[in-house]
Amino acid sequence: MTSPRVLFYVQHLLGIGHIARASLVASALAEDGFEVTMVTGGLPVPGFPGPGINHVRLMPEVTSREGFSGLQDIDGATLGPERERQRMEQLLAVLGETKPDIVITEAFPFGRRQMRFELLPFLDAIKAMRPKPLLFASIRDILQVNKKPGRDEETVALVRQHFHRVLVHGDKNLTRIEDTFPLAGEIADKVLYTGLVAPAAPVPSPEKYRVVVSAGGGAVGQKLLNAAVAARQLIASPGRWCVITGPNLDTASFDSLVSKGDGEMDVFRFRSDFRQLLGSAELSISQAGYNTVCDVLRAGCGSLLVPFAAGGETEQTARAVKLQELGLAEFIEEAAITPDMVASGIGKALAQRGKANLDLNMDGARETARLLRREINRES
């Protein structure tokens, strides 16, 4: 019996969260016997999608650091009609060459509307194939709220017309799709919850820090980093701190943070053992991205969240608010952050650590593989 072929489309624009989550899913599919091809359209990210995955890179497109409306190439030139055509032809060629049994689009049609120039023809080509692949949308647990009229209706129409199922990578005990997608009832028959997509629980690091401060890639986390480091001076007996700025923080800001370090505070651009450090820490101070929150929940340390909210982004704030309501984290708005607020939040987060009792399914990658296997067997 041949292995089912999966074509997984992933377009990351800012940071690595989308490709990191998709890579966990792709690895679980490969381990379950699927033949997986991931086609990516952002800048190369070392280590992703990982071993055992066929990888096709489209001509890379990126977006601005704090907005998602415009697309540029790696030299900063605006994407034009000719480049759009070339990307579309690349993507359609990959579809024709792989002849997949299953196609997965990461985020689309709930996000990545900027890529409609290539994805709408892609959907039409899938619909015309014989045999026709099963098409799945892969989305995180909390969606960006669409404020423009007609956007949600457009998403529903695309799901009803083209998609076999929508894979929601969340736990219903934590969040539900209707929390951030008002028209969820119109696609309820399409929705499958996989649980949270998280790596296995880390082995705690022998290098122990009381507090781990992190800012993802670092492109948009400077307020968090500066306020956290300043708050350390306001706390009695703060203990050892590890500050991880991310590789994209500008050099002057990084050097400024390093200058404030001492024997009890170390500053790094990157730590490959980030998850292990969380496993031995009492507290994490971070943004509220999907992957970071999953890592913190897995590690079981306390959590103080400062969600990224620039450019009208709502997803991280919604996640932080929900986790605070459930007693799983403390939350500070990025726009209003001060060292005093961080110091207060640290005390609250440490005081509530371990008190919440919520059993979450965090094995979403393997559950996705199981669900896809079930769906393809039903249709064969």
Short description:
The protein is an alpha/beta fold and 380 residues long. It is built from 11 helices and 13 strands.
Question: What keyword list fits this structure?
Answer:
380 residues, alpha/beta, 6-stranded parallel β-sheet, single chain, globular
Textual characterization of the structure:
This protein is of the alpha/beta class and 380 residues long. Helices cover 36% and strands 15% of the residues. The protein has eleven helices and 13 strands. A seven-stranded parallel β-sheet has the order 3-2-1-4-5-6-7, with helices on both faces. A six-stranded parallel β-sheet has the order 10-9-8-11-12-13, sandwiched between helices. Helix 5 (222-232) links the parallel strand 8 and strand 9. Helix 5 crosses helix 10. The chain is globular. The two termini are 13 Å apart.
Task: State the secondary-structure class.
Answer: alpha/beta
Oligomer: single chain
Largest sheet strand order: 3-2-1-4-5-6-7
Radius of gyration: 21 Å
**Gross geometry:** globular
Strand content: 15-25%
